[in-house]
């Protein structure tokens, strides 16, 4: 059985996925923007704008992961893990800004007569949809492997781009099939895409904000830590157990109940044993604060 990856290894893997997204989005911005201008499709130009925010957000994710992987120092004794969900919040904000700008420009375009989109833009969009969905699935898998809100946020940004491309494809198809009088169909498509982008922004914001607020992590973390503590000889039961996530690491505060007649030294040794058992079984746990309570 392979050892679990270290927090630094998880951060490095997340950074690699962010860099991959940056490179892909630079190419997509150039391709979408050029095709949108030449093909008279604002939906495609809006798609290029959304990909532009992807570049910024992927860089922010990369920077957040790099910061989160730093070791604790005098000013940050609990480490720099909050930088990781903070990066996810910035990504959510970038999505909202992009949605607002696209919506504003779409409304202006709907009110302004313009040419029908070119047919070749559909082929460009088909390639973009395939590529973005592939990036979404790959980056999301990495985000789940390294348990990173920021990397998962970056993945959802790719999915948002795929959605805007799908709506643009539909809008341009309607415009081309309808002919004169349907020129604004792709602008309406860009406007509809804004709703999907806002939804994705919330999807990113909610778990990242919960982590910033020290929300209890999903899953069975509390139950598992209680069970591990109660397996240690000398521990009669557990009382309070709080778990919070900071970046790639988890911190636990635990109250154990022991025989009230044992010595302070013995209670101290039991607490250390509890901490060692939990951290060995759960490598993602960075620290366990154990408080000893005497049995009544």
TrEMBL record:
Principal subcellular localization: membrane
Alphabetical list of SUPFAM superfamilies matching this protein: Cation efflux protein cytoplasmic domain-like, Cation efflux protein transmembrane domain-like
Protein topology in the membrane: Multi-pass membrane protein
Segments crossing the lipid bilayer: 18-38, 44-65, 86-104, 116-135, 162-182, 188-205
Cation efflux protein transmembrane domain span: 20-213
CC terms in the record's Gene Ontology section: membrane
Localization of this protein: Membrane
Cation efflux protein cytoplasmic domain boundaries: 222-294
UniProt GO MF annotations: monoatomic cation transmembrane transporter activity
Key words, A-Z: Membrane, Transmembrane, Transmembrane helix, Transport
InterPro entries linked: Cation_efflux (IPR002524), Cation_efflux_CTD (IPR027470), Cation_efflux_CTD_sf (IPR036837), Cation_efflux_TM (IPR058533), Cation_efflux_TMD_sf (IPR027469), CDF_Transporter (IPR050291)
Family that this chain belongs to: Belongs to the cation diffusion facilitator (CDF) transporter (TC 2.A.4) family.
Protein's recorded name: Cation transporter
Source organism per UniProt: Hymenobacter telluris
């Amino acid at each position: 059985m392979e050892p679990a990856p270290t927090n630094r290894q998880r951060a490095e893997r997340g950074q690699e996925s962010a860099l991959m997204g940056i490179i892909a989005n630079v190419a997509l911005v150039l391709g979408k923007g050029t095709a949108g201008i030449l093909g008279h499709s604002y939906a495609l130009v809006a798609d290029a704008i959304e990909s532009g925010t992807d570049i910024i957000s992927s860089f922010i994710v990369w920077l957040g992961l790099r910061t989160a992987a730093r070791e604790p120092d005098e000013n940050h004794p609990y480490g720099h893990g909050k930088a990781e969900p903070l990066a996810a919040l910035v990504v959510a904000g970038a999505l909202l800004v992009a949605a607002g700008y696209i919506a504003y420009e779409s409304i202006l375009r709907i009110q302004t007569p313009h040419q029908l989109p070119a047919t070749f833009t559909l082929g460009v969009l088909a390639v973009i949809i395939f590529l973005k969905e592939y990036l979404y699935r790959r980056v999301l898998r990495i985000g789940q492997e390294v348990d990173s809100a920021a990397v998962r946020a970056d993945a959802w940004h790719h999915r948002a781009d795929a959605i805007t491309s799908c709506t643009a494809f539909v809008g341009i198809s309607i415009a081309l099939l309808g002919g004169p009088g349907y020129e604004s169909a792709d602008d309406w498509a860009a406007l509809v895409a804004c709703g999907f982008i806002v939804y994705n922004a919330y999807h990113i914001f909610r778990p990242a904000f919960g982590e910033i607020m020290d929300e209890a992590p999903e899953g069975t973390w509390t139950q598992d830590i209680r069970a591990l503590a109660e397996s240690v000889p000398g521990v009669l039961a557990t009382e309070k157990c709080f778990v919070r996530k900071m970046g790639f690491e988890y911190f636990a505060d635990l109250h154990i109940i022991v025989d009230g007649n044992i010595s302070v030294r013995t209670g101290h040794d039991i607490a250390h044993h509890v901490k060692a058992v939990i951290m060995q079984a759960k490598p993602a746990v960075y620290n366990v604060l154990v408080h000893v309570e005497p049995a009544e």
